[in-house]
Design a protein that fits this description.
The complex is a heterotrimer of chains A (55), B (232) and C (145). Chain A has one helix and no strands. With 55 residues, chain A is an all-alpha fold. Chain B is mostly helical and 232 residues long. Chain B has one domain (2-30, 39-231). With 145 residues, chain C is an alpha+beta fold. Chain C has a domain at 31-120: Nucleic acid-binding proteins (OB fold (Dihydrolipoamide Acetyltransferase, E2P), Beta Barrel), CATH 2.40.50. Chain C contains five helices and six strands. Classes of the chains: A mainly alpha (55), B mainly alpha (232), C alpha+beta (145). Chains in contact: A-B, A-C, B-C. Chain A binds chain B through residues 2-5, 7-8, 10-12, 14-15, 18-19, 22-23, 26-27, 29-30, 33-34, 36-37, 40-41, 43-44, and chain B through 23, 37-39, 41-42, 45-46, 49, 88, 91-92, 95-96, 99-100, 102-103, 209, 212-213, 215-216, 219-220, 222-223, 226-227, 229-230.
Amino acid sequence: MLIGLDYVIAAYGIWLITFVVYIILTKRRLKTTSHAVTALEQRVSGTSATSQHTK
Amino acid sequence: MASMKKTILYLEWGSILALLACGLWVFLKLPIETSQGFPQKIMYLHVPSVITTYLAFFIVFVYSIAYLWKRELMFDQIAKASAEVGLVFCALVLITGAIWGRTTWGTYWVWDARLTTTLLLFLIFMGYFLLRMSVNDRDKEARLASVLGIIGFLDIPIIHKSVEWWRTLHQPSTLFKVDSGEAKPSMPPELLYPLLASTLVMLAFYLYLLLLRYQTEKRTDRLNQLLAETQD
Amino acid sequence: MKTRTKFVIGGAVILAVIIALSVQSLQEMTVFFYTPQEVLASPSKFEDKTIRIGALVQKGSVDWNAKDIQLSFNITEDGNEFIPVLYDGVKPDLFREGQGVVVEGKMKGPRFEANQLLVKHSEEYTVETEHKKNKEDYYKSIQAQ
């Protein structure tokens, strides 16, 4: 076996896995917050529209 | 807004493909370094991660000053996004450094000046996020975090100079070596060029992560603002 | 409020760790190792104290006893003044004559008994031309070891 191969694999492996996990988590967070924002924005504009109606 | 999405997409695919290309270059084309042998390949991960960490916290420094000056929420969102990405890179610097140290020095960790000040940087920015979480008022959070972000960055020049100021196990800088006033990296070109290329590519990858993370930060603040409005 | 106090406590713990680290390691950090000259200049100061010495492995002084797993060599800075070192342990892969090392242990009389041997590698990176030409041969040669 190549000397130090296990260490090189460990270093590159940890680096790669860290960013795969980080990107997945960040994208999921972006998706959920985006959905929540659009949902809330619709509700806010909906309520303000009805309140204008009543005036 | 749509163009931002496109920029992120291009940066995502561009930097990831370029990272893969650098990896292939390093493992298939590069000669084996004489004294260290195969484990020297870890350098192509460790050194670019170090430079990316420096840049990420420099961005925190710049946008923290900008926030304190202009009180623009966007500046704080960028600083926060960059601090988080920088913290991930900083952790990887410590981990890849420990692994590399095990193969060359014969130890994962020593308390020399270079390693200790790098750990200190990591702890300062862990504290940075604890501080943010502990403050409920968004403006106050931004103000305090900006101050800590500026102080935290000041550790980086100390880290960089530590190998010159003190006796350390860590060797002096290869990439930024200066000989009689001239920049002279102590590396043959066939090892140096891929190192420079990996560094540039990793900076592009950082930019991608920063923009992605900034998007989430913007949404989170908008969400909190909407929630506050609907509760009124 | 409850989570907030948790974070405040967390922050205080981190701050305490930072301060403890800096105080504890400041001495160690600024002088990570002594030089052979410093140790030889005032032997009484270092006698029986656990210290680290950093220097180069003197050429022609290395004696590796594989049977007893014992390594002895001299460390020096200038080639004139040296300290003989005895290390009970496996010879590290990168240990070579002329290489920078940091040894941790105690001075026992004129000899340094090390319990840790760290290899300090230089910032110079080189590629031998033969390796460039015959990379496969090089890979084979390490695999054969």
